[in-house]
Every structure is written in C-alpha cells, then in structure tokens.
Specification:
This is Queuosine salvage protein. It comes from Prorocentrum cordatum. Helix content is 47%, strand content 11%. It is α/β, with parallel strands linked by helices. Helix 3 (75-84) runs parallel beside helix 12, helix 4 crosses helix 13 (287-303) and helix 6 runs antiparallel to helix 7 (128-150).
C-alpha cells in the first residue's frame, strides 16, 4: 500500500486529477473542498460517475466537472467488468483494502417476475393474428420461461452453465438481441407479431392499464441477465470510460463490453500510457465504488504513485466496522455524512 504524501508529490507527474462516484448531498461540496485543502476545484481535472442515483437530490454539478453515465445493461457489460476483477493481482489488492468483490448469483427476484411474461404468452395464444403464424415461437418462449423459473443455484454454478442453459432455448448471439426491438426474435417471433405484442395493452389487477413492453418485455430482457454479479457495476464502467477519455454515445452493449476488455488488457499488461488516472477519489462505499478503489489502487501501485480516497459513509452504527477498517489505511479519509441514505446498499454488499 502507498503512504501519505505531500500535495506536491501527489501531483508528481500529471497534476491533481479527481474522480467522483459518491452521492451528491447537502454537505458534499464543503467536505470535498476541505479534503482538497489548498486546491481550487475549478483549476483541477474532475470527472464524475453520474447515473441518476448518484445525484438523486438533484444538486447542481459544477460546469467544469465532466460527467459520465454509460449504459450498463445486459450480461456482456457485467461479464466484461467481472473479468477485470477475476485477475489475481487486483483481487490481492481488494483483499488488502478489505473491499468486497461481488459474486455471481441467480436472481430469484427476476424469476418471480416471470408471471408477467406468462400474461403476455396467454395474450399471444388468444390473439389469432399472432398465434396463427407464431405458434412455435410462443411454445419456445413458454418453455424458456418455465425452465428459467425452475432453476436454482445448483443448476447454474458458473457463467458457462448459464450460457449453456440459455443456448438450450435460443440461438447463439442472443446477447446482441436483448433490445426490445429484437428481444422476441430470440424465440422466432415475426417482427410484426413482436411489435403488436409490445404495444398491446394489459389490464392489471388494480385496474391500471399498461403495455406489454412495460409489463413483460422488460422482465423477459432481464431474465437473460438473471445470472450475474450481485450488485451494481455502474461506477466501474463510468470510471473505465473516464480513464479512456471515451464517449459511449451510439455504442451497443457489445461495443461497451469490448471497450472494457480493451481497458483490462491494457492495464494488466502494465501499459498505462494515454490513460487519465485520478489520484484523488471520492466514493460512497457501495460495492461498485469499492471495486473502483481496488482498481485505482492497483494502478497506482503499478505506477509507484499514491491514491487519496474520501469515503462517504452514512452515520448508521452498523457501518462503524467499515470505518474502523478503512480509516486506518494510508491515504484514506472516512466521512460520516449525515445526509447519506445508502446504508442498506452498503450493508447488503458487505453482509452486515
């Protein structure tokens, strides 16, 4: 682990660079400025992971902060992120820091939502214009949903097993057909039938009327990603794109996954040339933030430089064990933010 150093040493070769992945709260601006000491934020390079939940309070973000909100849907992106953290070197650093790396799990929550897909299947069978030409496709979809609901953790112990299960029901290349425009192509539905189903109306038990796109499509799409890392990976994806200085505009999930794999290959080869490497990191202690920490710490150890971390943590007493663990690490400050509201997510990630 690196040791504390002066501001001059932190900036040793390329200036102070700051990455945010914390939640923006009432006291955020004052606390980060105190952390930066004599530096003026407006004179620094600052990039931020800014999905909606990182700014749920709708705080003003300074214009000089470059914001990243890269899509993270689908198994391609999740698996590419997890390949970073499958490396022994980065797992070693994570262990030294005492941060969690999520494991793969089968989502029983998504399995329970398949009742909504069954609603769509019944509608398809009862609608002659769809059923007459798509009977085989409806059968395939129903078999997939029934088999998926019957899975348990023993059925899919690893990614290879999950891939094998999905390929029993849909053709290879399904990862590129998870957008709603192409989702039912996996089962052989004609485009006309898919479009009709997507727009068709369903009346829920409470009388609310929704489309099957809202009611069933989104859960069917999620079913293909139901075996995956137990936790969000958003901040890691945004950090990778921030370090590459790349835009995700117009990229598919496969394109985003390839960018992440390219990043991993570059970092693990020790080739850090051209990467924007933050030396100050503000995070909110959820698992994906801590994964960013492990990745950045590994990179700084490779460079022989020091990373400084401001760890934002709610005041809940159950989290004291994490403060005790991390506050003693060189270069890490823990801020117990009274306005933080993510204690449950942190407890879940760390089994507290």
């Amino acid at each position: 682990m690196g040791s504390c150093c002066t501001a001059q040493a932190v900036a040793m070769d390329d200036g102070v660079k700051v990455f945010w992945s914390g939640h923006l709260t009432k006291g955020h601006a004052d606390r980060r400025q105190a952390w930066l000491h004599e530096y003026s934020e407006a004179q620094l390079e600052i990039k931020a992971s800014m999905p909606p939940f990182n700014n749920a309070n709708k705080m003003d973000v300074p214009a000089f902060v470059e914001q990243f909100n890269v899509p993270t849907f689908g198994p391609n992106i999740a698996n590419s992120v997890m390949r970073i953290f499958s490396t022994e070197a980065i797992r070693r650093v994570a262990n030294q820091l005492g941060v969690a790396i999520p494991t793969y799990v089968l989502s029983t929550f998504i399995q329970d939502k398949m009742v909504k897909v069954h609603d769509m299947i019944r509608y398809a069978r009862q609608t002659a214009a769809i059923a007459d030409k798509n009977a085989g496709a409806i059968d395939k979809l129903e078999r997939f949903v029934q088999a998926f609901k019957a899975l348990d953790s023993k059925s899919v112990p690893d990614v290879a097993s999950w891939q094998a299960f999905v390929l029993e029901h849909v053709p290879a290349g399904w990862e590129s057909r998870l957008h709603f425009d192409h989702l039912l192509e996996n089962f052989g539905f004609a485009m006309e039938a898919s479009d009709e189903l997507r727009a068709a109306q369903f009346v829920k038990e409470d009388g609310e009327t929704v489309t099957f796109e809202q009611h069933a499509y989104r859960w069917l799409s999620k079913a293909f990603s139901a075996y995956g890392p137990n936790g969000a990976l958003t901040d890691v994806v945004n950090l990778v794109f921030a370090m590459f200085g790349a835009s995700a505009r117009g990229l598919s999930d496969l394109d985003i996954a390839r960018q992440i794999d390219q990043f991993t290959s570059k970092v693990m080869a020790g080739d850090l040339k051209g990467l924007w490497v933050p030396n100050k990191f503000f995070m909110d202690c959820e698992v994906d933030d801590c994964m960013c920490w492990a990745l950045l710490q590994y990179i700084h150890e490779t460079r022989g430089t020091t990373l400084h971390v401001l760890a934002q943590m709610p005041p809940d007493k159950e989290l004291d064990v994490l403060e005790t663990r991390w506050a003693q690490l060189p270069g890490c400050e823990v801020w117990r933010d009274p306005d933080s509201r993510n204690a449950k997510a942190i407890r879940t990630g760390y089994g507290i």
